[in-house]
């Protein structure tokens, strides 16, 4: 019902624009052009022409796009500037309320409240209003289906009108992306293309596995790379990688773990000696990339599960976990193998239902499990002794960004006085500061949220006022989190507010882990730091700490009094 | 030195110097052990010292095992960290002893440092609630009184050993007006009180404290009344531990050794200390300075690394 068969897809209209053009124009401009074309079609439709077979836009999407002309038409006039347009009103002839609402949606946030009142008063003058950012306002989502056809979904309705999520990047999904690349952009490595599709279709998901897949693919890129004659590897390879990253980001916004890994990769490349022979440089790069995965992900996970987390899982515990984190499943399975007697409550939530995967893994390893939906959370909470969740990233202000729903769990846990433990490797730390889930988030495919059969009774159309918002993450404030378990130490997440922490982590983390990683493997249960202290790195780590600021902002120096 | 000798020396030191914190006495004992030790390699010496620490922690009559273990561990780290590059072991041992003395010196004067930095927080005419007996709190209050501050102190009786009564005696002896209140009267007294001061047996990584049973109750009452809770603790009490709740605190911090050794059913025993989470603490005064609870783990990691 919600599918078009490709030919009718507005992206087909892109064919009219030469590939070169597309490449040179910015994303916003391209989008504006698409909007224009869609608007034209929608205008034809709204002025009474029935959908011809040549334009097989099905009913729902047609409703959605007929909702659109207000936002689109200005771009017909000024595709490049997407700036204010006075002609818009002439293009948007039909003065239906839906047009009005669409216009309100297309307005920038500042104009919104004004426009909302206008909308309530009724007169459809809105279209003539200055439209500042058409490309942004028209949130649009495209997904690709298994048969290769594409679907255009409009994110509209109530939240679309509010527009508070309109700044979030809408990933261009799947095959149509690959199509638009054409020959001019065949420079993108096939492995990257494959990875992009895997990301966008959700075959590879989860912070850690996405990062590992990225590094693995980057290794392939490095292997296949040959330095052009008049260039040097350390500069050329970096610039070669840039469009790859952009492509991946288009497929699905980069996770923090990937961002950190990419920064590391770029650093490695740019620090390759200029005069190093290609083969040597490449093998060295690959080795370093392997090392990164080993150290930051594999060993870190091992450290977390074998030292700190192990201490916190005791006999008789009932541990609740939400969604699927590879780290949490490792921690739980390791604790079970060590003979701890505990049971796990796996909480799951729509639309991703990732908890099922975790459930599968745990049960396969013999862990006692129960499975509930997130709506039953307050019912099970009194039975829970600890909550263990993973994280997408840990923000600089101590907030934890995690799978959407985690913050709700933490809130209920706080109400029931249950300690919340977050497992997070230090490579997922992020210097961003964020206090809500709006400013930075990821939009999932709204199609996933839809309930089949909800509007099908009597072929009733889906109300245009309704929108589907599928956010991927939410943030949990630090006062709801008892403890963050990293491979270096246990943190109270409020402490992250302290500015010396990033420095501590930046300077010590790689070095400490780097120097004592082998011992870590050997040491069974004692604290990580203990094993470090006994190693020869004692003095080195001491020195590292001497470089820390003598007085952190949370610490009043003695002489101040 | 064998086990009995170590424990005997420790108990004697504690008896001779009642004003001395048990952790300091333990460090003194360790210095004695170090002095008499016959070990010929560094690792042997380290092992002997560790054994001695274990002995000290098992000392029967003492419930303040928290600060003893943390103090000893810090001592061990302090003396052995810098001394790895000497060829002659006798020389090395001298250095260790020297460093040990230095550490003992700094530890001993940390209390007066705390008393000094805490002084500005007592205003004239203040009414202060104090929980149980704490040497560092006593010294801080006496110091303030000597500087001409006038204030009144309420001391909780602090069951089951009524250590608050002892504290009351010491305060009266120092000329500070003081009143003993029942532990159950904390809620009643809280509205008159301007600030709450307590010591700590151990300061943990989260910034919370482990202290005489009843501290948590007082902290809750104080938070409800929006009264500041100040904790006075020397830095050798910083423990590498991150309890999530009361249950997560190790048993040897909650019960005294005698109870644990009896292998009694712990559910029938009464704990001697409780854990106060960082959210209930306004500020921590240590010889490192005045810390917010959230800064503790930074300082702690700096101490232990």
TrEMBL record, chain A:
Region of interest (Disordered), ranges: 1-78, 90-129
Protein localization: Cytoplasm, Cytosol
Main location: cytoplasm
GO molecular function: translation initiation factor activity
SUPFAM superfamilies the UniProt entry points to: NagB/RpiA/CoA transferase-like
Keyword Transmembrane helix tagged: no
Signal peptide residues on this chain, from the entry's feature table: none
Keywords on record: Cytoplasm, Initiation factor, Protein biosynthesis
Keyword Transmembrane helix: no
Transmembrane regions: none
Start-end of Polar residues biased regions: 59-72, 105-120
Biased segments, Low complexity type: 90-104
GO cellular component, as recorded: cytosol
Xref: InterPro entries: IF-2B-related (IPR000649), IF_2B-like_C (IPR042529), NagB/RpiA_transferase-like (IPR037171)
Self-association and partners: Component of the translation initiation factor 2B (eIF2B) complex which is a heterodecamer of two sets of five different subunits: alpha, beta, gamma, delta and epsilon. Subunits alpha, beta and delta comprise a regulatory subcomplex and subunits epsilon and gamma comprise a catalytic subcomplex. Within the complex, the hexameric regulatory complex resides at the center, with the two heterodimeric catalytic subcomplexes bound on opposite sides.
The family this protein is said to belong to: Belongs to the eIF-2B alpha/beta/delta subunits family.
Name listed for the protein in its UniProt record: Translation initiation factor eIF2B subunit delta
TrEMBL record, chain B:
UniProt cross-references to SUPFAM superfamilies, sorted A to Z: NagB/RpiA/CoA transferase-like
Places the protein is found: Cytoplasm, Cytosol
InterPro entries listed in its UniProt record: eIF2B_alpha/beta/delta, elF-2B_alpha_N, IF-2B-related, IF_2B-like_C, NagB/RpiA_transferase-like
Primary localisation category: cytoplasm
Keyword Protein biosynthesis applies: yes
Record GO terms (molecular function): guanyl-nucleotide exchange factor activity; translation initiation factor activity
Matching Gene3D superfamilies: Translation initiation factor eif-2b, domain 2 (3.40.50.10470), Translation initiation factor eIF-2B, N-terminal domain (1.20.120.1070)
GO CC terms, sorted: cytosol; eukaryotic translation initiation factor 2B complex
Keywords noted in UniProt: Cytoplasm, Initiation factor, Protein biosynthesis
Assembly description: Component of the translation initiation factor 2B (eIF2B) complex which is a heterodecamer of two sets of five different subunits: alpha, beta, gamma, delta and epsilon. Subunits alpha, beta and delta comprise a regulatory subcomplex and subunits epsilon and gamma comprise a catalytic subcomplex. Within the complex, the hexameric regulatory complex resides at the center, with the two heterodimeric catalytic subcomplexes bound on opposite sides.
Protein function: Acts as a component of the translation initiation factor 2B (eIF2B) complex, which catalyzes the exchange of GDP for GTP on eukaryotic initiation factor 2 (eIF2) gamma subunit. Its guanine nucleotide exchange factor activity is repressed when bound to eIF2 complex phosphorylated on the alpha subunit, thereby limiting the amount of methionyl-initiator methionine tRNA available to the ribosome and consequently global translation is repressed.
Family indicated by similarity: Belongs to the eIF-2B alpha/beta/delta subunits family.
Descriptive protein name: Translation initiation factor eIF2B subunit alpha
């Amino acid at each position: 019902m919600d599918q078009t068969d490709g030919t009718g897809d507005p992206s087909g209209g892109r064919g009219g624009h030469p590939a070169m053009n597309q490449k040179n124009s910015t994303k916003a401009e391209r989008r504006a052009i698409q909007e224009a074309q869609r608007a034209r079609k929608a205008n034809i439709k709204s002025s009474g022409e029935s959908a011809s077979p040549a334009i097989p836009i099905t009913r729902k999407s047609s409703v959605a796009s007929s909702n659109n002309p207000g936002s689109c038409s200005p771009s017909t006039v000024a595709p490049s500037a997407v700036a204010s347009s006075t002609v818009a009103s002439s293009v948007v002839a039909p003065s239906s309320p839906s047009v009005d609402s669409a216009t309100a949606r297309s307005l920038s946030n500042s104009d919104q409240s004004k426009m909302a009142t206008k909308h309530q008063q009724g007169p459809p003058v809105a279209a003539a209003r200055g439209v500042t950012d058409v490309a942004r306002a028209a949130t649009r989502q495209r997904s690709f289906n298994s048969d290769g056809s594409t679907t255009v979904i409009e994110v509209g309705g109530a939240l679309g009108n509010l527009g508070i999520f309109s700044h979030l990047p809408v990933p261009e999904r799947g095959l149509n992306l690959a199509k638009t690349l054409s020959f001019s952009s065949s420079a993108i490595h096939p492995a990257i293309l494959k990875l992009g599709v895997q990301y966008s279709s959700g075959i590879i998901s989860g912070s850690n596995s996405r990062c590992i897949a990225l590094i693995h693919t980057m290794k392939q890129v490095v292997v296949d790379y040959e330095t052009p004659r008049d260039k040097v590897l350390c500069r050329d390879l970096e610039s070669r990688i840039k469009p790859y990253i952009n492509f991946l980001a288009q497929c699905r916004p980069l996770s923090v773990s990937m961002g950190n890994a990419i920064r590391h990769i770029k650093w490695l490349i740019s620090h390759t000696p200029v005069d190093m022979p290609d083969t040597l440089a490449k093998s060295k790069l690959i080795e370093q990339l392997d090392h990164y995965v080993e150290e930051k992900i594999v060993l870190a996970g091992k450290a977390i599960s074998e030292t700190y987390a192990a201490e916190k899982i005791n006999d008789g515990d009932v541990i609740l976990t939400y969604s699927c984190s590879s780290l949490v499943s490792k921690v739980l399975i390791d604790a079970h193998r060590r003979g701890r007697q505990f049971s796990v409550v796996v909480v799951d939530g729509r639309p991703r239902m990732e908890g099922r995967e975790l459930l599968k893994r745990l049960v396969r390893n013999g862990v006692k499990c129960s499975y509930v939906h997130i709506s039953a959370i307050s019912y099970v909470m009194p039975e829970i002794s600890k909550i263990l969740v993973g994280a997408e990233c840990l923000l600089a202000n101590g907030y934890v960004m995690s799978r959407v729903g985690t913050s709700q769990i933490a809130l209920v846990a706080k109400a029931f006085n249950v300690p919340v433990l977050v497992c997070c490797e230090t490579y997922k730390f992020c210097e961003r500061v964020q206090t809500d889930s709006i400013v930075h988030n990821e939009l999932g495919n709204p199609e996933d949220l839809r309930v089949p059969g909800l509007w099908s009774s009597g072929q009733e159309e889906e109300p245009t006022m309704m929108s589907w918002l599928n956010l991927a993450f939410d943030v949990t404030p630090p006062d709801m989190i008892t403890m963050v378990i990293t491979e270096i130490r246990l943190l109270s997440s409020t402490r992250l507010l302290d500015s010396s922490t990033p420095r501590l982590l930046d300077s010590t983390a790689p070095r400490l882990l780097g120097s004592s990683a082998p011992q870590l493997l050997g040491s069974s249960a004692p604290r990580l730091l203990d094993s470090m202290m006994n190693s020869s790195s004692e003095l080195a780590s001491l020195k590292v700490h001497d470089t820390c600021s003598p007085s952190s902002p949370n610490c009043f120096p003695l002489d101040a009094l | 030195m064998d086990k009995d000798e170590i424990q005997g020396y420790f108990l004697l030191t504690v008896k001779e110097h009642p004003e001395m914190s048990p952790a300091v006495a333990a460090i003194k004992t360790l210095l004695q052990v170090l002095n008499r030790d016959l070990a010929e390699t560094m690792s042997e010496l380290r092992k002997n010292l560790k054994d001695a620490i274990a002995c000290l922690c098992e000392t029967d009559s003492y419930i303040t095992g928290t600060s003893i273990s943390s103090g000893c561990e810090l001592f061990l780290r302090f003396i052995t960290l810098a001394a790895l590059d000497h060829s002659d072991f006798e020389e090395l041992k001298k250095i260790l002893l020297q460093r040990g003395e230095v550490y003992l010196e700094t530890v001993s004067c940390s209390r007066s440092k705390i008393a000094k930095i805490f002084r500005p927080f007592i205003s004239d005419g203040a009414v202060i609630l104090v929980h149980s007996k704490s040497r560092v709190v006593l010294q801080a209050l006496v110091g303030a009184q000597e500087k001409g501050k006038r204030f009144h102190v309420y001391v909780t009786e602090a069951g089951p050993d009524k250590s608050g009564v002892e504290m009351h005696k010491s305060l009266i002896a120092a000329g500070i007006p003081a009143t003993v209140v029942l532990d159950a009267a904390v809620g009643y007294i809280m509205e008159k009180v301007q600030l709450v001061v307590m010591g700590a047996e151990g300061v943990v990584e989260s910034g919370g404290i482990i202290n005489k049973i009843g501290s948590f109750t007082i902290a809750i009452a104080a938070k409800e009344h929006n009264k500041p809770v100040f904790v006075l603790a020397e830095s050798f009490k910083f423990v590498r531990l991150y309890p999530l709740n009361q249950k997560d605190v190790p048993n040897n911090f909650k019960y005294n050794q005698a109870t644990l050794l009896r292998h009694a059913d712990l559910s029938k025993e009464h704990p001697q200390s409780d854990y106060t989470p960082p959210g209930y603490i306004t500020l921590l005064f240590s010889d490192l300075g005045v810390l917010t609870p959230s800064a503790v783990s930074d300082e702690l990691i700096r101490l232990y690394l």
